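How a chain folds remains the central question behind the approach discussed here. In the encoding step, the backbone of a single protein was reduced to a row of integers, each denoting a local shape. We regard such an encoding as a compact summary of how the chain folds. The sequence in question and its structure tokens are set out directly beneath this paragraph:

___
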Amino acid sequence: MAQLVARYVRDVEAGSSSLLTPTKTLKDTVFAVSFSFKPNRLLLSFAYCLKNVSLQPNLKNMTKPVFYIVTLTVALLVSACTHTETTYYPDGRTQSVIQYRGKKEHGKTIYYYHNPNTVEIEVEMKNGKRNGEFHRYFINGLLDTYCVYENDSIEGVEVMYLANGCKSQEYTYVHGKKEGPHKAYHLDGSIKIEGGFKNDLFDGPWTYYDERGVVVGEGTFHNGDGEVTFYDQNGHKSRTTQYKNNKKEGPDQYFTPSGEVYREIIFKADRIVSTKTDSTLLQ
């Protein structure tokens, strides 16, 4: 670094740089060069500042020289600390390409599948945190998930897709938590589920549809607690499921067309505790 600065000082003293002319003020030169974000030009401008400060005893023509030198030094340090690192799989294929500022990820981070060597994840980073667009791809190159991060938390709508390119689900986030409408889709693109969240928990009415748009289930939730009732093709109650804190809790009951319970599965925090079936009711 010292050698480069010395070389540029000699160039300036010899008048070999067309970038610097007597008509340009130090302020003009520093800002014109520093904001080009080219390390060699930053060094040149830094050398010019040093030359003027050290060689001119009269500093009346230099407006706040220390301020401009500090500004330029900071810009130079930032530029020098920004770099890109690439990692590889054992067979030489690219595994990741990550931009850094200092020791923290800053800029675009990309991860690759091994075979085929297509992009798996692409995300914008800022000071080591996800900040910007996030893309996850299937191995066939089609989009799997899209969302936007702010300060490492999802903000807005997250969209998920199936491997055939069809939209699968949509969630709405506020400060990293599910908040607002949720939709899920059938393979043909028709709506499968409509519901909502509040503070990451099921909330409000939830409705389930078949491919024809016919309601096959409905329920109501509050703070993740509620019950969903499903219907058969004739509109009869076929099943009820209990939820607590977003998880199945209690009896999950199956009904005959006449309304009798022929199967009961007991859940505890989404785990099956016991199962009971009366097969005589199915005859």
Summary: The helical segments are 2-14, 26-34, 39-55, 65-81.
